[in-house]
Amino acid sequence: MSTAALALGVHWPRPVVVIEADTNAVTSAMPGFFRSNLLPELGGIEKVQLAYSRGILTREDLLDPERYLAIAVHDLPPVKTAPIPALPPQHEMWVVPGFFHLGITDGVSGLWARLPELLRSLSEAGIDVILDLGRIGRDDVRLPLIDTADRVLLCAHSTMVDLNRLYRRLEIPDLAQRIDVVGNEKFYLLLTEAVAEQLPASDFITNVLPVLGVLPFDPQGAGTFSVGRPDIKPNRNSYRQRIRSVITSLGSIIGYSDLDRSAS
User: Is the dihedral of CA 137, 35, 263, 220 positive or negative?
Assistant: First the structure.
């Protein structure tokens, strides 16, 4: 879920890179989060693959503004007519937008097995990474990214439909075996309140996985991160508030001590 991934990135307490790695949909960050203010040439996963093919991709390369791979959100000039979401003071956040052309996704399949090395080098430099994988297919070529992740959040709505989908998807060996190996210490659910017929989080905990948090059904608040809705009073945005709560819960698991900051 790109909305949650970008919102988490905005409020993350350490420098963070958010990477759209969804092979089933074109980037939503560029027209949504960035409100179509930026050109595709400024960065993206396609350019990351090209850099890899040329053997020039290190963490320094990824964050180098002259290479146009990752977009430094904290360095963007303000655009009054179409502002992006406000960042906390002194927060550093980069975004690697996803695909602009789905026709080339098969051509970058080799990237996913090589990307973990880059992600580890970012972590060693004190920079965290949030990956948005979108929908995970059976025996997905991006599974190496799940293997290298510290924690994995599966997003779903609090409905019987999604509970059944999750239960059946996690029966398939590619994910079932991974969950069996690491137990419930790595995989968690991030739920979103349903419009109607909502199930309690306890039903998901009993039948699927532990629930890290439940995001509100707040189209206007979430729209700040998904479709570029202006956020005049960010501290009153219930979606932002719940995202900060989720980060605090995640921090208690990972061991961070200062995971709750608000945007100004």
Answer: negative
